[in-house]
Specification:
Blueprint (H helix, E strand, L loop, with lengths): L4 E4 L8 E4 L14 E5 L7 E4 L5 E5 L4 E3 L3 E2 L5 E8 L8 E6 L4 E4 L7 E6 L5 E6 L6 E6 L6 E2 L9 E3 L5 E6 L2 E6 L6 E5 L6 E3 L5 E6 L2 E6 L6 E2 L8 E5 L5 E7 L5 E7 L6 E4 L7 E6 L2 H6 L14 E4 L4
Parallel strand pairs: 10-28
Antiparallel strand pairs: 1-2, 3-4, 3-27, 4-5, 6-8, 7-8, 8-9, 9-10, 11-12, 12-13, 13-14, 15-16, 16-17, 17-18, 19-20, 20-21, 21-22, 23-24, 24-25, 25-26
Length: 319
């Protein structure tokens, strides 16, 4: 599908006007759900907000920043990400928080390891992430102000995390299995095998967890019962994200032409879904559904597209 897009750039700190032809109506999702993702189509790496009709609502560009993940605060006022900024002379990644209203970024971690894949807890208090600061990748939890850093796991090459809706539990994959533990890193239990991907996502009602395997996406009850295959894929899906309405799971995959695209599957009728054509050519990565609070904070999102100027930073180092 050919999409005509025209951009007019103005001086940094000014608005960047953008005219985009509307995407075709995809007709697959609930109107309450707004998807966000990072487009790696070019070096600016904009965060794109797209409605369920395939229309781009907003693009956020932060000059000088290469964000490599995306997780929204539950109130929609901030998001967390891991990144390397231009002024950092090495390849260390750290965890940051971007305030949407003040357009400032503050640093939560500062160490010689790689701190990656932050996930904001639904209660708004914590951010979990993976880090190899101790030699192997383990999971950590930190307060949103950068304090009270806690190591949750011990040396098994863990990766991305998914919070339960009540913020009392964390799901993750490791050693080709799906695990669940408490938010304090206790009561670790294996929920399922065959989890060869690195992604999992919790249903908004807290009853199920979806995870990626090497042949598709599966869901399972939190008690370990009712394993169900939702998609038939010949590859692992990435960046799984369960929609706030509970009806859809979004994921990223590589299609037969080698393009990065976003796919969706209905959680009730797995025959419904497929590739969201509006994302073709945008090279989407790092998916997350926009929380409902975002639209209440920024009610004009459907009528304007805002590009940010120079990035302001307040470095905040965890203990």
């Amino acid at each position: 599908m050919n999409v005509k897009r025209t951009r007019t750039y103005v001086i940094l700190g000014m608005a960047l006007l953008l005219s985009i032809s509307l995407f075709a109506n995809s007709g697959w999702a609930d109107e309450r759900d707004v998807l966000s993702f990072v487009s790696v189509e070019d070096r600016t790496r904009p965060i794109i907000l797209m409605d369920t009709q395939g229309k781009i609502l907003q693009e956020l560009v932060i000059p000088g920043l290469t964000q490599l993940s995306l997780s929204w605060a539950p109130d929609g006022r901030s998001f967390t990400y891991h990144a390397i900024h231009n002024q950092v002379p090495n390849l260390d990644f750290d965890i940051y928080v971007m305030d949407m209203e003040t357009q400032t970024s503050r640093r939560l971690t500062l160490d010689e390891g790689l701190d990656i894949w932050p996930a904001w807890s639904p209660n708004g208090k914590w951010i979990s992430f993976a880090s190899n600061r101790a030699g192997t990748y383990d999971l950590y939890r930190v307060d949103v102000d950068g304090g009270n850093l806690i190591k949750l796991t011990d040396g098994h090459n863990y990766d991305k995390t998914a919070w339960s809706p009540d913020s009392q539990s964390i799901a993750f994959t490791s050693r080709a299995s799906l695990f669940v533990m408490t938010a304090e890193g206790r009561k670790l239990r294996q929920l399922a095998g065959n989890a060869h991907g690195v992604d999992c996502t919790w249903s908004p009602d807290g009853k199920k967890i979806a995870f990626s395997a090497n042949n598709g996406i599966f869901s399972i009850d939190v008690n370990g019962r009712n394993l169900r295959q939702l998609t038939q894929l010949n590859q692992s899906a990435w960046f799984l994200a369960w929609s706030p309405s509970g009806e859809w799971i979004a994921y990223r995959l590589t299609d037969i032409l080698g393009d990065l695209v976003i796919g969706v599957v209905n959680t009730v009728d797995s025959k419904r879904g497929g590739v969201l054509e509006a994302t073709r050519g945008l090279k989407p990565n790092y998916l997350d559904w926009v929380p409902e609070g975002f639209l209440s904070v920024f009610p004009s999102v459907e009528k304007q597209i805002t590009f940010w100027g120079a990035l302001k930073q307040n470095e905040h180092t965890s203990q």
